[in-house]
Amino acid sequence: MASSFQWSAEKAVKWQSDQPWVVGCNFLPSTAINQLELWQKETFDLKTIDQELGWAASIGMNAVRVYLHDLAYEVDPAGLLSRMDEFLSVASKHGIRALFVFFDDCWNHEVSLGKQPDPKPGVHNSGWVNSPAENQRAWPADLARLETYVKAVLTRFASDERVYGWDLYNEPGGGGYELASMVLLEKAFEWAWSVRPSQPLTVGLWYANETFNAFQASSSDVVSFHNYENADHLTAQISRLRSYGRPLVCTEWMARKNGSVVEVNLSVFKQEGVACFNWGLVDGKSNTKFPWGSPEGGPEPDPWFHELFHPDGQPYLEAEAGLFRELTGRS
User: Fold this and answer.
1) How buried is 330 (Cβ within 10 angstroms: 0-12 exposed, 13-18 middle, 19+ buried)?
2) Backbone angle region of 274, left / alpha / beta, with phi > 0 → left and psi within -120 to 50 → alpha
3) 63: which strand partners?
4) pLDDT tens across 293-311, in order?
5) What is the pTM of this model?
């Protein structure tokens, strides 16, 4: 697979030199259970988005990673683009840019438009869905629809300074798909290269499949990765990834139960100059304060797994909020 449209390492490093230290979160408003509830017209909750992005900005965040969904475009192309524009306007008001995610292999394989399921009490991400759904992965038949979606979104926002970047595919091969996802991964880069937006393209390194990792690293403008481990593990991973000679972006981190904690790991990102997006902001319908594999109806975890704020805007741990403010210069 050719990667002639990938930025040179020099261009990527120059791009990074023009950026502040980027620190943010994976954002889903507390009133949405998944990507569709976020973006569908009937449940697009701009008031809550505005309020909660304000809380993110209050602790110094300047970016958010936000998942899109192909069916939200399929059912209402102009509407999705318009709502993305509204989202970006509100985010920009708070000094926040967006890193948008197109595809995702994680969690529930079956996807339906319309009303989304209610949360299962105590179950982490009980309503999160694949994009595309399992029944829309017949290659090459389903590729044309997805190509239209990707190119339309990228073309609309290709030069938009409110966009930090494009994460084309979250955890390809996850959910049991394995190498069957390689077709869509390769096509996602081809479609994005055909538009070649001004913002960087990336797909995060997330597990030890060298076929995926080699392709992603040789195609991404900036090297992104996931790390839910302690500071020693994080530091070692950053050291290994430096060999690519490109800016590093950790697009998922913070799992308190695993030792991936704000009071230590955030300082590592700051010291290393690595952009970082922890998972979650406000406790809500996603239930991601509960750990992976949590049983239905289980008690509130101590500590929370993800999330930084209670639904009323109070920090879960004031010490964490204080460190964000300190390291971002917000205090």
Assistant:
1) middle
2) beta
3) 24, 97
4) 999 999 999 999 999 999 9
5) 0.98
10-residue averages of pLDDT along the chain (331 residues): 81 97 98 98 98 98 99 98 98 99 97 98 98 96 98 98 98 94 98 98 90 95 98 98 98 98 98 98 98 95 98 98 97 73
Q: Given CA atoms 160, 4, 65, 18 in this order, what sign does their dihedral have? A: negative
Question: Where do the H-state alpha helices sit in the chain?
Answer: 9-17, 35-39, 46-58, 70-75, 77-93, 143-157, 182-195, 210-219, 231-241, 262-272, 318-328
Q: In what order do the strands lie in the sheet with 201-202?
A: 201-202, 163-170, 97-104, 63-67, 23-26, 275-279, 248-253, 223-226
What are 248's two structure tokens?
Answer: 């590093």
* Contact yes or no for 28/286 (Cβ under 8 A): yes
Residue-by-residue DSSP string for 28-92: --TT-SSHHHHHSGGG--HHHHHHHHHHHHHTT--EEEEE--HHHHHH-HHHHHHHHHHHHHHHH
Distance CA 38, CA 127 (A): 12
Which tokens sit at 119? 């949360």
**Amino acid symbol at 305:** F
